[in-house]
Amino acid sequence: MTARKRTSSVAKSENPPPATKEHKPTVASGEDFSLAPPKLGVIFVISSLLCSLYIYLLCFHYNVDDELKRPILINAGLSLVGFFVTLKLIPVAARYVLRRNMFGFDINKRGTPQGEVKVPESLGIVVGIVFLIVAIIFQFFNFTEDSLWLVEYNAALASICFMILLGFVDDVLDVPWRVKLLLPSFATLPLLMAYAGHTTIVIPKPLVSYVGLEILDLGRIYKLYMALLAVFCTNSINIHAGLNGLEIGQTVVIAAAILIHNVMQIGASVDSELRQAHAFSIYLTQPLMATSLAMLAFNWYPSAVFVGDTYTVFAGMTMAVVGILGHFSETLLIFFLPQVLNFLLSLPQLAGIVKCPRHRLPKFDPATGLLTGTRDGTLVNVYLRIFGRKSEKSLCIHLLVFQALACAFCFLLRHFLAGWYK
């Protein structure tokens, strides 16, 4: 979900505008379309802030075995190539989607000249395709035919690919949100069928005396939990949206936290299987972050493209997969703390208890350029109601800082509970 009003030939609005009113399009067709240049300066600042600690921990702080460090660095190099390929492909893809009338108008700029600009949407398909290509090529450098991780790696890619397809179908057909809740369940099937890892959970130490067990085998219930986690992660990114850069911004912040967590676990663990599981997670997170940063260069305020539901469901599924196969789903949920809060705030409207409009966005004042929070149950609106009116760019930065603080809180929580909780 993005702050857009769809005007494609496929999906029609329930309340069409009067026939007497004409919108003069800013762009006539994909042929004469010129995309605004990428905001590489912004991306340099964001990537420096998010990646510096990870690079320091990987290369200098921890003595990571060469057997693990080498494929991680190869994967990072391929991800960097993916970053530049994504930068080049986005303008090309933007022209193609405009030819198919897949564009929207930025609702948060309605009443201004920018609000009349046709913005290409569903460009998340570019990120998804480049991500898959990078992840597939990486197999050549790391996995052998008899590798124990190869089956789960390909199953993870199949689930992600399935979700990209379903997300693009949603962008084209405008699938009702109730159906969207079920789509990740189907996309996780390849992963669930191929999953051969443990299905046990460690009982928290304060509860061991009551349960009578230190380790509990959940069996098939664990796979049900995996499917539910994928459903939540996929849809939580999708509904915590509506601002230029927010969908991708929250993804890269969480991805940076995942990378830091993985390298910390690799550096602190002596269990080779656990270290390999966290390295596996890095192999998928680095391409996600690199390609997402390239898209953010075009999606940062003011947005030149919309990512569409294709990107949000793809990003959510990828992070769910790395959390499941990296065996840190509890930590992942704390990284998703703002998304959990947004879901709880949205629950009355999603459940139909309170009327749910199509776009649960703040109210934009064209005279001041500020957003005002509405009564809709989203974190965006609640934040505005608590802290007052803000510009779209300022609000997005505030929410991303809140996301980063939630991730930092997770690391502090793990530090203080280590040795006592588990």
From TrEMBL:
<feature type="transmembrane region" description="Helical">
    <location>
        <begin position="148"/>
        <end position="169"/>
    </location>
</feature>
<keyword id="KW-0472">Membrane</keyword>
<dbReference type="InterPro" id="IPR000715">
    <property type="entry name" value="Glycosyl_transferase_4"/>
</dbReference>
<protein>
    <recommendedName>
        <fullName>UDP-N-acetylglucosamine--dolichyl-phosphate N-acetylglucosaminephosphotransferase</fullName>
    </recommendedName>
</protein>
<keyword id="KW-0812">Transmembrane</keyword>
<dbReference type="InterPro" id="IPR033895">
    <property type="entry name" value="GPT"/>
</dbReference>
<keyword id="KW-1133">Transmembrane helix</keyword>
<feature type="transmembrane region" description="Helical">
    <location>
        <begin position="72"/>
        <end position="94"/>
    </location>
</feature>
<feature type="transmembrane region" description="Helical">
    <location>
        <begin position="40"/>
        <end position="60"/>
    </location>
</feature>
<dbReference type="Pfam" id="PF00953">
    <property type="entry name" value="Glycos_transf_4"/>
</dbReference>
<feature type="transmembrane region" description="Helical">
    <location>
        <begin position="224"/>
        <end position="242"/>
    </location>
</feature>
<keyword id="KW-0808">Transferase</keyword>
<feature type="transmembrane region" description="Helical">
    <location>
        <begin position="395"/>
        <end position="417"/>
    </location>
</feature>
<feature type="transmembrane region" description="Helical">
    <location>
        <begin position="248"/>
        <end position="268"/>
    </location>
</feature>
<feature type="region of interest" description="Disordered">
    <location>
        <begin position="1"/>
        <end position="27"/>
    </location>
</feature>
<feature type="transmembrane region" description="Helical">
    <location>
        <begin position="181"/>
        <end position="203"/>
    </location>
</feature>
<feature type="transmembrane region" description="Helical">
    <location>
        <begin position="122"/>
        <end position="141"/>
    </location>
</feature>
<feature type="transmembrane region" description="Helical">
    <location>
        <begin position="280"/>
        <end position="301"/>
    </location>
</feature>
<feature type="transmembrane region" description="Helical">
    <location>
        <begin position="313"/>
        <end position="337"/>
    </location>
</feature>
